[in-house]
Amino acid sequence: MATLELQGLAKSFDKTAVLHRIDVSLQDGEMLAIVGASGCGKSTLLRLVAGLEQPSAGRILLAGRDIIRLDPAARDIAMVFQNYALYPHMSVFDNMAYGLRIRGLSKAEIGRRVQVAADMLGLDALLARKPRQLSGGQRQRVAMGRAIVREPQLFLFDEPLSNLDAKLRVQMRAEIRRIQRNLGVTSLYVTHDQTEAMTLGDKLLVLNEGRPAQFAAPMEVFARPADTYVAAFIGAPAMNFLPATMGEGGVVATLADGARLVLTDGARPGLAGRKATIGIRPEHLVLAGKGGGDAGGFATTLDLAVELIEPLGSETLVHGMLMLDGTSLTLVARLPGGPPSLTDGRLRLGVPAAELHVFDGETGKRVEVG
Amino acid sequence: MKNRPDYVAHACLLLGVVLFALPVWLVFAGSTQDSNAIERGEISLMPHLGGLGIYPDVLLHGSMGSAPVWHMLMVSFGMAMAIAVGKIVISVLSAYAVVFFRFPFRRTAFWVIFITLMLPPEVRIIPTYAVMSQMHLINTFPGMTVPLIASATATLLFRQVFAAVPDELVEAARMDGAGPLRFLWDILLPVSAANIAALFVILFVYGWNQYLWPLLVATTPGLDTIVIGIVKMIGVETQTQWNAVMATAVLALLPPVVVVVAMQRWFIAGLTEGDK
After folding, report:
1. How far apart are CA A86 and CA A130, in angstroms?
2. What percentage of chain A exceeds 90 in pLDDT?
3. What fold does the segment set B56-272 form as a domain?
């Protein structure tokens, strides 16, 4: 198997730049999840690696070898397409065997590889069927099988689960991960679904309009998002943002209504006296009523005018408006257990100081202590 | 939906059937009757079974000194097949080039093909004849078929069919290592099989019905097509053997009917199938 390195990879169509200098390096057997809103260039990135498009600049090193000049077929890469792209007139067996036949493998070897892949994917009983006789999930498996039998150095997945229903998606997600781990093939996985990205990737690359917003391990991205775009994209429901002004040497953030948030983890002197955006994830907001006696744990409390309560069983989503000096702000809280009891349609929520994220109010970049 | 049969619709459909089927039946019935009676207008709607012997007669010997009908049927069949297959091969290749390859003047090439729609054989008959004559193809089988093979309509049709093939399918084949010709043969042609079959039916009938061009370019009786043969059987000065003419007409109908019926399933699939 192989390491993958993208060095300064860029792509423009005519004069429009769709990808700007992507740098990524993956260890052997790692899976990189590439995530971003639609149109952020993530599919283009995958197509560059596949060789279906030529990059405008940069290098792609697979196992230390620059593959940019190589034809897609010569790159030792297999791809799973969003719409599966199965050959409609060929049986499941032939779909998987086609690439191997072209490569001139012996009949016995083709039969063995297809059998191994079919066993792995539970396609054994379907080998003689045509794609149109298969369900969406089965087609998806065949598309996977076609990639697996190639025994390539690199797998590319282009939103492979987006055409499946929700339940099947969760199931296939786990399966893709299991198979990829077992085979130990380095992989790129493009998705717009942040859950898929979080659960599948060893590393996560968040793209924002063709620029790499963050490249790190998924939990690192979740815990320390590099900017407000990443913070809003990763995590569901999305992170809440509160506009604030930093003062007093970058230790205290003042909200528009005058509430003061003391940053207990340390000062951000660089932001002192400037605008900041304070981020807090919905699941980190807590009911101020209960543990609220201990105000020391909270940076502040917020008075939320509740608009909608969504009980999900094990937890409850509370959507509400926050009035900050005349401007209203929507806020979402994710509380454990059933719906909370409201007083006059309002709810007091505590903001734990330890869970605050501080971003530059102008650039949106994360600002760390010090 | 209404449960009551729609009598008006059925009446219209029945009328349509009669309009189409009656002349054919009349020809069949006439073919078994006495030629002189037909000439006098005394044609009956009932076939005389005793007159069926005219069929082996025209098949083996022809009528009024014409070539035997079996030979004319062979010529027609050969010509229709050559035109249908030739048109399909040429237009598949040209549409393949126009749709899947980026080359200089691709659009120009496409428009040049498109413009030939305005130049059917009937319009360019004199220059085409001159070219055939210079190439010494007058009175030859290639001379009868080649000028009819180049086809903008079929190219346009295949262009639409190929353009509907999903990009991902093309890319999957590229990643599998299929080169251009292999992709054409292994993927594109099987995927378009229904459309090819439908077009084949249309083109076969087109080739079978050709009259003007073979009349001009082939003057030896050995190259008479069945359509021309029928006309030649209708004598101007001598008395026409009407029952033989009608029997030949019936025989001339059969091959296209067989082709259409045999390929009906494909034909309909090719015209209606949207899911690729």
Report:
1. 9
2. 66
3. MetI-like fold (1.10.3720)
Integer angstrom CA distances of residue A29 from A14, A198, A339, B177: 35, 17, 44, 24
b/e map B146-169, b = 16+ CB within 10 Å:
bbbbbbbbbbbbbbebbeebeebb
Please tell me whether the overall predicted TM-score, pTM, comes out greater than 0.90 for this model.
no
Chain B: closest CA distance from residue A113 (Å): 15
Among residues A318, A327, A314, A325, the alpha carbon closest in space to that of A349 is found at A318
Q: Do B174 and A52 touch (CB under 8 A)?
A: yes
Average pLDDT over residues A83-106: 94
Contact B172 A73 (CB under 8 A): no
Interchain proximity B186–A98, CB inside 8 Å: yes
Q: How confident is the model over B169-214, as pLDDT tens digits?
A: 999 999 999 999 999 999 999 999 888 998 999 999 999 999 999 9
* pLDDT at residue A297 is higher than 90: no
A82 neighbourhood in chain B, CB within 8 Å: 168
CATH fold for domain A4-233: Rossmann fold (3.40.50)
Burial of A185 (0-12, 13-18, 19+ CB in 10 A): buried
Q: Exposed e or buried b for every residue in B219-229, given b needs 16+ CB within 10 A?
A: eeeebbbbbbb
A contact test, residue of B175, B188, B275 with most A CBs within 10 A: B175
Within 8 A by CB and 6+ apart from B101, the residues are B180
A34-75 pLDDT, tens digit per residue, is: 999 888 889 999 999 999 999 999 999 999 999 999 999 999
Show me where the domains of chain A are located.
4-233, 240-360
